[in-house]
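As promised in the previous annual report, we have extended the structural survey to additional targets. Below is the entry for DNA-directed RNA polymerases I and III subunit RPAC2.
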Amino acid sequence: MEHGSIHESHASTFSLADEDHTLANSVRFALNQDPRVSFCGYSIPHPSDAKVNIRVQTTGDPANEVFKDALQDLMVMCQHVRSTFEKAVVDHKTTSESFENMSIDSK
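The corresponding structure token record, generated without further manual editing, is:
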């Protein structure tokens, strides 16, 4: 849900339900990488609420567009981490199999 003003499209607060610090901090990081963002921060209204508020202020571009772009950038980062991890697992299994086939007896 977006909380903002029609007259001030460069500043909005986005509420994400059923989320916590994990996603909020990642989104904040992605937003702070964007040069169009002048301020970004998040808060959790109450520890028992599974809700996060993310405040975005931009240099002039609509905040909702910048927010969407940051989420897309975060998805690309996650896909990169996942593919790198999966490649490392395959490499490790390949290396482990070659070590298992080695003989340590010198007869």
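The longest strand covers residues 51-58. Residues 10 and 56 are 8 Å apart (CA to CA). These points will be discussed at the next consortium meeting with the crystallography subgroup.
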